[in-house]
Amino acid sequence: MHSVETIATSNSAPPAAGAGPDKPPATHHADPGRPPLPPVRPAQVASRLVIGVVLIGGTLIMGALPRIKQQKKLQTMASTKEHEVHLVNAVHPLSASGTAGVLLPGNVQAVEETVLNARTSGYLRRRFVDIGSRVRTGQVLAEIEAPELDQQLMRARAEASKSRAGREQADADIVKLSANVAQAQSEVARMQSNVETARADLAHSKAKLVQVEGAKQEAIAKLEQVKKRLSGQRANLDRAKSRASLSEKTLKRWRTLEKGGAVSGQELDEKEADFDSAQANVAAAQADVESALADVDAAKHAIESREGDVSAAHADVSAATEKVNAAESSVKSAQSTVEAMQASVQAGRANARAAQATIEASQATVRSYSSMIGFEQIKAPFNGVITARNVDTGALVNAGSGNSAVDPTTTVPRSGLFGIARTDMLRVQVQVPQSMVSMTKPGLRARVLIQEYPGRIFEGIVGKSSGALDASSRTLLTEIRVTNRDGALMPGMYAQVQFLAPQTRSILRIPANTLIVDGAGVRVATVDHDKHIHFRKVTVGRDYGKELEVTEGLVGNELLVTDPTDELTEGLAVRLASETR
After folding, report:
1. What pLDDT is stored for residue 512 in this prediction?
2. What is the DSSP letter of 140?
3. What is the pLDDT of residues 32-89, one digit of tens each?
4. Which CATH architecture has domain 90-97+506-580?
5. Which residues make up the CATH 2.40.30.170 domain(s) of the chain?
6. 469 Cβ contact partners less than 8 Å away, ≥ 6 residues apart
């Protein structure tokens, strides 16, 4: 690029001595490359008239010779102005391809950064690190003394032991109640057996009752039979008595007749034999009647006996029925007892579950306090460096004091116990202009430059972006991840980031001092082969500060005028400053 240099040539000359005041100023030939002169104001016209009058008077006094010399000098100067050529500096556009090397300011931050606060209240017993200490994950940074918390843990453990004892007692009660249930169930089985036995006895009594009632009916039938036989025997007795009475009367007649000799003794003997036979028949009939009466009495006694047996059988049936009812009532009572005991078992199991819940709650309390005891040690959450230490031994710290949120405006927190940052991997935050958003995709390579490390380039990769542009600046917050194994970079450093975005086409860049922005638009002044000025409208792409990207209007072989002035006009003849050297 040619150096910027402007050579100015004066277009004015001092008035010639002796020029007459009455003479008008010499007429200059118009310079085609100069813009028209501005119009003269009325006040200037009046002033010039007064001066003209004075000059005319002086000119008349001084004579004509100085006026002629002045006119010749003016003509010479006009001729020189006509042949004057502007001297300009010009450069060619730069053609670039491959990567876009725009530099953007960035802020170096730790990839992980946090403030460590106390989770347990107490006094700081000891601390093991200070600012700048390198720590690893899980390393103890400080210890807090909290005697109240220790006592709470002991109380919680005692409550847990008590809860376990309550659970054991509930389990023992369940076993006892279950045994009672088993015993009651066996009693129910025994009583059900008694019910079956009673029912068998009842069936036997009922069968006996049926048998006794059958015997009674049989005795009644026999009594009726005996009564009928008695009636027959009595009838036989009456007939025998009638025959005996007739035999007696016949015998008396025959005895009378035998005395009268009307009948023979043989016939009398026969009548006496008949009488004796009738008497015997009467006695036999009487005996039969008495026997029948005895049978009737026996039948009656048998019926009475059967009625007693029937009554006894009815009593046995009633007693057996009562035994069955009693046995069934006992079974129902035993079953109610079993149900009550089963309910007690369920209640015992509910108590056991409640005791188990109490155990779990107590154990949770123990775990909670044990965890709190664990928080008596402040440990590093990740590998990093201690960036702040805001407490010292003996300081009273409160649980959850301070704000754990990281202030993005500072890398050294003023709150909390410690500040810790992971520095083996850093992130550089850059505000990417809207014109470059399309090329800053995740995975894009970038170079990070630090002023304090001249000549050293830190390689990084685009990680994440905010996903939305800041409306006030039209920029996208983007993070570049940079590996920092040697620890050369520190959070809070100022950096410059150059994105290495591949270009799919060649781009032209021009110096920013070649651009003309006026009422005619955005233009550049070009110098053609004949050394004349021509203006071209261009479209500007990315702004790189000292250089601009041109997307339309230029081919790449043009000569562009640097620092163009208002004196440049279309077609103006110029001369390149590089040709004068």
Report:
1. 92
2. E
3. 444 454 555 566 666 777 677 667 765 666 665 666 666 666 665 545 444 567 889 9
4. Beta Barrel (2.40)
5. 100-143+384-502
6. 434, 437, 475, 476
